[in-house]
Design brief:
Blueprint: E1 20-23, E2 32-35, H1 41-52, E3 56-61, H2 66-78, E4 83-87, H3 93-107, E5 112-115, H4 130-158, E6 162-167, H5 180-200, E7 205-212, H6 219-231, H7 237-244, H8 254-265, E8 276-279
Parallel strand pairs: 2-3, 2-5, 3-4, 5-6, 6-7, 7-8
Antiparallel strand pairs: 1-4
Helix pairs in contact: 1-2, 1-8, 3-4, 4-5
Amino acid sequence: MAFFHSKLRSATASSAPCLLRGFSTSKIVSKSVIVTGAGQGIGKAIALRLARDGFDICVNDLEANSTRANSVVEEIQSLGRKAILAYADVSKLPQVEAMVKASVDRLGPLDVIVANAGISKAHLGIDVQTSDLQRLFEVNFYGVLYSDQVAARQFIKQGSGGKIINAASVVGFRPFPMLPIYGATKAAVRSLTQSLAMELAKDKVTVNAYAPGAIDTPIWDKGDEEMRAINGLPKGQNFKDTVNAIALGRIGVPEDVAKLVSFLASADSDYVTGQTMLVDGGMAFS
C-alpha cells in the first residue's frame, strides 16, 4: 500500500497479556533495543539490522503473529545476539509496561526503543467509519505515545539517557489521496516527536522519527484492493502511479528504512533530536 508502514497486524487488537519467550545466544552484555511490530516488513528489517549492529533485541508483536515473530528471533539468534519475544498490543498501556519490564529483566538496561508498530487503511475522509478512526489512532498514535512514555521513564530511572525512535510517514509531511486518517496519525507522531524531544533533552534522551514513503511489503496487495475499491483503477495501477512519483525511480524496500534507523540508534546521531527524517526516494522534500 502506498506510504503504508509495513506491519498491518503488528500492533492491533489483542487483549492477551504480555507473554515472553526467550532465546539467549551470547553471554556478552551489550546495548539492548525494543522494536515493536517486529514480526514482518519494516519492523523485521529494523530488528535484524540492529542485531547486526550489535544490539540485543526485544522483538515485539502480537501473539497472533507468533510464527513470524519467532522466526525473527531465530534469525537474531543466528547472528549471535540475545533476543526475547514479548507479545503485546501497543495500544494497551499495561501491555506496553509489561513489555518494557520484560526487556529490562531479560536483556538488562534499555538503550533504545523503536516504536515501529502501526496499521493502515485507505478510505475517503467523508466515508471514514468511527471504528476505523478510533483504531488507527489507537495503534498509530496511542501506541507510539505509550511506547515513548514507558521507555522514557525507564531511561530516566536508569540515569544514562537513551534513544526513542518513532514511526512516522511521508504522509505526515504532505497529504495523499485516500489516506486522510492514516496521514493525520502520522502527522501527530511527527508533532509528538518534536514535543518529547524538548521535554526529554535534559534527561539526555533523544527523540527522532523516520518517515517511510512507498515501501514494498506484503501490505501492498491489501492496500491496492482498498484503493481499487475507491478509484476503480486496474489491479497494480495504484502501485505503478506511486512509483512514477518517486524521484529515484524505484519502490523502497524495508532495508532502506532499517539503514536510517541504524543511524538514529547509534552514537552517530547523539546530536540529533526532534527530527522526522524522510526515507522515501524523493516523494516529499523538507
